[in-house]
Amino acid sequence: QVQLVESGGGLVQAGGSLRLSCAASGTIFSVNAMGWYRQVPGKQRELVAIITRVSTVYADSVKGRFTISRDNAKNTVYLQMDSLKPEDTAVYYCAADRPPILGVYDLWGQGTQVTVSS
Predict the structure, then answer these.
(1) Which of 34, 69, 76, 106 is surrounded by the fewest CB atoms within 10 Å?
(2) Is the CB of residue 2 less than 8 Å from the CB of residue 107?
């Protein structure tokens, strides 16, 4: 069974850094895009970053601080988070937008908690 498994979350002080990983297991699959999203209690899940074969997209709130990348050989997507702020505290999810439909993230990881203290 195809799965996305996230890791790298934890507790960090404001200004610190974390690197999240999202590893795919099971049957190899093609993607239109991979994305990182985050969610806090009482709010909807929001976009953090998206990576395609040729481009990246970032939420305004994380531009200049977060970097999304992909290592195809390792079937892994990363989110490097620098200069973390308390408002970055959330559960972070990775997701896959798979063919044939564009723009639908139908495969999600379990989420990993990121907590930024002040």
Answers:
(1) 106
(2) yes
Beta bridge partners of 16: none
Backbone phi and psi for residue 101, each to the nearest 5 degrees, phi listed first: -95, 130
Distances (CA, A) of 104 to 15, 42, 50, 92, 112: 33, 23, 12, 18, 21
Q: Which residue shows structure tokens 């991979």?
A: 34
Q: Give dist(CA 71, CA 65) in Å, integer.
A: 20
Task: State the burial class of residue 24 (Cβ atoms within 10 Å of its Cβ: 0-12, 13-18, 19+).
Answer: buried
Could you say which DSSP state residue 26 is in?
A: S
Q: What does the pLDDT look like over 22-58, one tens digit per residue? A: 999 988 788 999 999 999 999 999 999 999 999 999 9
Task: Label residue 87 by pLDDT band (50, 70, 90).
Answer: very high
Do the beta carbons of residue 37 and residue 95 sit within 8 Å? yes
Return the structure tokens found at 41: 């209690």
Cα–Cα distance for residue pair 115/9, rounded to 1 Å: 8
User: Does the pLDDT value for residue 67 go beyond 90?
Assistant: yes
